[in-house]
Amino acid sequence: MELIQQLVNGISLGSIYALIALGYTMVYGIVRLINFAHGDVFMIGSFVGFYAVTMLHVGFVPALLLAMASCAVLGMIIERIAYKPLRNAARIAVLITAIGVSLLIEYVTIYLRGAQPEAYPSTLMPDRNLELFGVVISSQSLFILGTSLVLMVLLQFIVHRTKIGKAMRAVSHDAEAARLMGINVDNTISATFAIGSALAGAAGVIFGIYYTKIEPLMGILPGLKAFVAAVLGGIGIIPGAMVGGLLLGVIESLVSGLGYSLWRDGAAFVILILILIFRPAGLFGKNVREKV
Amino acid sequence: MATWKRTRGFWVSVILAFAFFAVVEWLIASGTLNVFYVNTLFFMAINVMLAASLHLIIGITGQFSIGHAGFFAVGAYASAVMTMKLQLPFAVGVLTAGVAAALAGLIIGVPSLRLKGDYLAIATLGFGEIVRIALLNIDYVGGASGMTVTHMTTWPWVFACLFATILVIANFTNSTHGRACISIREDEIAADAMGINTTYYKVAAFVIGSFFAGIAGALYAHHFYIIQPSNFGFLKSFDILIFVVLGGLGSLSGAVVAAVLLTIVSTFLQNYPETRMIIYSIVLILVMLYRPTGLMGTKELSSLFKWRKAAQGGMNHGGKNTVA
């Protein structure tokens, strides 16, 4: 029973990772960039949700939508200012810019509101425990899982059934050919950043509800772990990010369930190094041979 | 005579370096430099060592490593265990630090060879985090509260280590081995096709780079009285990366100058850590957007100003012959 309990916790945690990982994977798939600032977009989403609830006194759904919208705008701004001028630059330059943007968002937030943590209001979501075959499941974890699933289905719909989704797939396949076919590559990339960042914003609000405590540097570790999740599933592959996120959450919960809770953060990075060594393309990826 | 002409710059740099050492030693002994300046100087030297060692990995060999603080941490803790737990002399501590970090470099270097670019970067980042989390969980070295370490770092030690670092890295770059590393940076497949053992040289760069990062760690541990895992997070790795990138990837003197300048800047902004990080990040973004080659590009200081070098206080000795 203990095991199933941990499994349930792991799936809730994993769905948060999966939401963040989706943004990483979409952006990587389309511009081959590890968007280090993604974890900080997640943090901003969490704070927007928090201020929406405490200052505007709105409920869960409006707060979630507000956080998603502001993160989408933030993501587009970041892309336009910092990444777009570097589209043809060396990879290392782009990666370092991403690190710079990440530090900038973190410390501007600290500068504006201080580094002190904030507690999410617990009234946002009813916390009742559900007992199912002897396993206690909090209504919160179910709600988190439900929200993530809805968002993921929505994302699948956007990517596979809409025009912009088709454009995104085309650009990620071959940006040059897509441009020749009349697709506006810049707008498509902006849309990708917007969608990915909106998902991160939603993850931020959910994270706040689940863990209660939020602070300006909270995005770093979940951001890195979500990246691990994206690599685990095969970076650039959307279902891979979902599976990778859930898997990572479950593994982490099992590690803490076995009594090594202090090593929990290490587990993600050990997985990362193992997967990079033995299957760099990820679980769902195909190996691509390098040609001269 | 021809040999003298070729190595003249090198010997002049060495003499300048020793003159700098003697002057500073005299200033410290006579008490002209107060504790604050000595602290800044030591910190500067440690940062220069870190920057130079990362320069070898990123700037020369082109292997993008962003977990350098991990090696730094291994060195710091290894030396602290030697001197504090086993009561061995400082020299043993420094040497152990270097060897332990080099071993860590070997361990991370060998499997990482299968990775390139972004993936390598993330793997090294993961390595740095694993080191930090491991230190946090090992009670023998104090866990989160860290270890207290006696102050043993003196100016002659700092100078000797700094001198050795710069000398080895500059001469390595100029050697056959260094050329091989540069060819890997330029085009790994072509280098391989030309018969260069790319695996060997990539590991070598990792091992040498992490060796000196470890030594810097030993100096750091024995200077600041206390070491904690939180001092070695990836913000530290980014700090080191910023030195190398701002200085110009592929330029040793660029990395050295950037380390010196940024240490001075961060010393002045010590009381405003947020402002410091905001300035850092904005500078980083702007440099990448408008001058992605960094301050120096791949040029060395000596190729720009023949005489300005002396005014830099001998910090750039040895980099003279490097035109990477």
TrEMBL record, chain A:
Q: Where in the cell is it found?
A: Cell membrane
Keyword list (alphabetical) reads: Amino-acid transport, Cell inner membrane, Cell membrane, Membrane, Transmembrane, Transmembrane helix, Transport
Q: Name one GO biological process term.
A: D-alanine transmembrane transport
The keyword Membrane belongs to this UniProt entry's keyword annotation: yes
GO molecular function terms attached to this record: L-isoleucine transmembrane transporter activity; L-leucine transmembrane transporter activity; L-phenylalanine transmembrane transporter activity; L-valine transmembrane transporter activity
Write down the superkingdom of origin.
Bacteria
Q: What is its main location?
A: membrane
InterPro entries, alphabetically? Answer: ABC_transp_permease, BCAA_transport_permease
Q: Name a GO CC annotation attached to this entry.
A: plasma membrane
Membrane topology of this protein = Multi-pass membrane protein
Which PANTHER family does its entry note? BRANCHED-CHAIN AMINO ACID TRANSPORT SYSTEM PERMEASE PROTEIN LIVH, HIGH-AFFINITY BRANCHED-CHAIN AMINO ACID TRANSPORT SYSTEM PERMEASE PROTEIN LIVH
Q: Which family would the database say this protein is a member of?
A: Belongs to the binding-protein-dependent transport system permease family. LivHM subfamily.
Name of the featured protein = Branched-chain amino acid ABC transporter permease
UniProtKB/TrEMBL annotation, chain B:
Give UniProt keywords alphabetically: Cell membrane, Membrane, Transmembrane, Transmembrane helix
GO molecular-function terms, A-Z: branched-chain amino acid transmembrane transporter activity
Where found? Cell membrane
Q: Which domain of life is it from?
A: Bacteria
Q: How does it sit in the membrane?
A: Multi-pass membrane protein
Give any Gene Ontology cellular component.
plasma membrane
- UniProt keyword Cell membrane, yes or no: yes
Protein name, UniProt field: Branched-chain amino acid ABC transporter permease
